Amino acid sequence: MRATILIFAILISAFAKAQTTTVLDTIYANDTKNVALFFPEPIRQGITGSDNFVFTYNREKEQYFGLLQAKPGKESNLLVVNRNGSVFSYIVRYKKQLSKLNYFIPLSNSIGNEKPIKVDSILAESSEERVDNRTYYYQQFCSYLLNRNQRIGRIKNRNEGIVLSVENIVFDKEELYFVIQIENNSTLDYDLNFLNLSIETRQKGKRKSLQRLYQRPIYKHNMPSKIKENEKARFVYVISKFSLSDDRRAILELNEKDGERNIEMKLSHRYINNPD
Question: Out of the domains of life, which is the source (predicted)?
Fold first, then answer.
């Protein structure tokens, strides 16, 4: 009897110790902005513990991210299960002013798995070639921007039924994300030759001239090669962050392959220096 009591006491002590050493991270949200959570695997299930927190995700087609919103009230918790069974748990709190809108959650944050993982599967996973973390980050964040569908204003130019628009410019970490749309309102398909972003500088002096410096994109997301008649394409250009003085501006050049429906768009320093 004493041995049974002793074992039971040891188990309770071990469980209590595990509970106190596991501190859940806190995610803040409010009712005016979407807080995006990007997971290492597609979300299969997401549950909040209180009605004043809402976690939305694609229930029909599994995706890597979900959106969290909150109304004023007591703190609660968020439980998310990925497609591979990884379980993530967080404390969620309402906060009127948010300093962080995007959370990229690594697999190491998982508190466990809903089913036992075989050693063979772990070895197989570790032997597979891993996707570059930075590229994965760009891919997920660009997808989020395209789904958000937010616009900074009417920044567009057109030529013979082809409309080039910059829908948004977003700053994140050390990069600028240009959300771009090409719309083909003509009766001919549009074959894209190139889309370049350059910085144009006005040279001072007696002989005034313009000098352009090409900005190579770090990553292109959903970049089209053809836009069919009466269709449009939306994509994202990722560029290393830069700023412009009053005498400089950004130039976006759209060039048609084997055609003359080219467009040049000027972006003032106001848009570049004050991104979303």
Answer: Bacteria
Distance between CA atoms of residues 26 and 18, nearest Å? 19
How does pLDDT run across 100-126, given as a tens digit for each residue?
Answer: 999 998 888 888 887 755 545 544 454
List the one residue out of 14, 29, 17 whose CA is nearest residue 90: 29
On whether the pTM is more than 0.70, the answer is no
What is the residue-wise DSSP string for 212-255?
A: EEE---SEEES--SEE-TTEEEEEEEEEE-----TTEEEEEEEE
| Distance separating alpha carbons of residues 57 and 46, to the nearest angstrom | 8
Close Cβ partners of 109 (under 8 Å, ≥ 6 residues apart) = 25, 88
Percent of the chain scoring above 70 in pLDDT: 83
Which residue segments constitute the domains of the chain, with CATH numbers given?
23-130 (2.60.40), 151-273 (2.60.40.1150)
Angle at 36 between CA 20 and CA 90, to 5 degrees: 10
- What's the one-letter identity of residue 250? A
Q: Quick count: other Cβ atoms within 10 Å of Cβ 88?
A: 22
Closest among 86, 87, 78, 64 to 28, alpha carbons compared: 78
Give 183's strand partners.
Answer: 163, 232
Interatomic CA distance for residues 162 and 193, integer angstroms:
14
